[in-house]
Automatic annotation (TrEMBL):
Domain Histidine kinase: 185-367
A GO MF term: phosphorelay sensor kinase activity
Keywords: ATP-binding, Kinase, Membrane, Nucleotide-binding, Transferase, Transmembrane, Transmembrane helix, Two-component regulatory system
Enzyme class: transferase
Name listed for the protein in its UniProt record: histidine kinase
Transmembrane feature ranges: 12-30, 36-56, 63-91, 103-122, 134-151
EC number: 2.7.13.3
Species annotation: Sporosarcina luteola
Catalytic activity: ATP + protein L-histidine = ADP + protein N-phospho-L-histidine
SUPFAM superfamilies reported for this sequence: ATPase domain of HSP90 chaperone/DNA topoisomerase II/histidine kinase
GO CC annotation, single: membrane
Keyword Ribosomal protein: no
Amino acid sequence: MGLRIYPKEQMKHYLIIDAISIVFLIFIVLEAESVLALPVRLLLLAIFLFSYYIALWHKDVRLLLAVLGGISILTVFGILINPPLLLFGFIFADLLGRAASHWHRGIGIAAIGGMFLTVFFIYSNAEFSWEHNFLLPVMILQMVYPLLVYIRGKNLHLKDELLVANHQLEQQYIEEQERHRIARDLHDTLGQTLTMIKLKSELSAKWIDHDKEQAKKELLDILSSSRIALKQVRELVSEMKFIPLDKEIEQVKTILTQAGMEATVEVVEQPPLLSSVEETMLSLSLREAATNVIKHSEATNCLIRLTMENDAYVIRIVDDGIGLRQASIGNGMQSMQERMQALLGTAAVADGEGGGAVVTLRLPLRHHERSAMK
């Protein structure tokens, strides 16, 4: 999967701030006068950066250990170089707010307070200058900041859940409206025809013993009405089941956008002439893949790529989420595989090269072309 440098979901808000903070910290530590030799400073900075990198990518006990390591380095810097270097504790206070455990968050907050109190105690005999007085409110802010980050993350998570719930309610409403439409269409289209068949059948029963020619005419009318009813049923079923691929792509893009993702559609090659069944199966599989992205991926970007590969039409749904580490093949993936297998195609999911997951829908076209030629 390659080297992971920085979480994609945090780049927009934190990358520039973190880069600036770390550059300033390195510059100040290397330029300041101190009893620490240059190799020792470089070693401590390396440990600090390593702790920062570990805390950046984890939310379990590794995050807590990394925060404790980074705070220990800052404590040494505050004592042996300059107390205001404790300001850079905000780097770890921010990451601490994303800890999965309340206990880890509490221990980390206590460690931040211990860092400041240690430096205050060391300098208790030597009076702080007035410019160092700001460290007390800084300590309070750094201890409160993880809680603020946690509350903000919790609110965003609840907002995402609300969006998903609203989407589900919207889908239920659409399905309910569709059921009403189907019932109305069945009543309007088939009701009259079936009523006519009923009346003609009653007339045939009356004429069968008195006028066979008239009864035969009525039976022919019943046969004609039955054919009309069969044609109407086929038209209704076809209308209910057919899902155009282009419309489904636009619908999926809208749904992904509403879920807070940046959705992109990349059409490398236009799809060939597909049958109604093939388009519908691809549309339903694409819909299921998008649903899985919204529910499980935690992604911020999703790419839908349509292209031709080796006499096959291929749709790839690529996200930048957590990949398959915590996911398993469930009913959604099984449904996609069954639909594509019905078309002699395949549906597969795999980890992406740069993270996230890739769902590949592959529809072979050779068999379709041969049947079209026949």
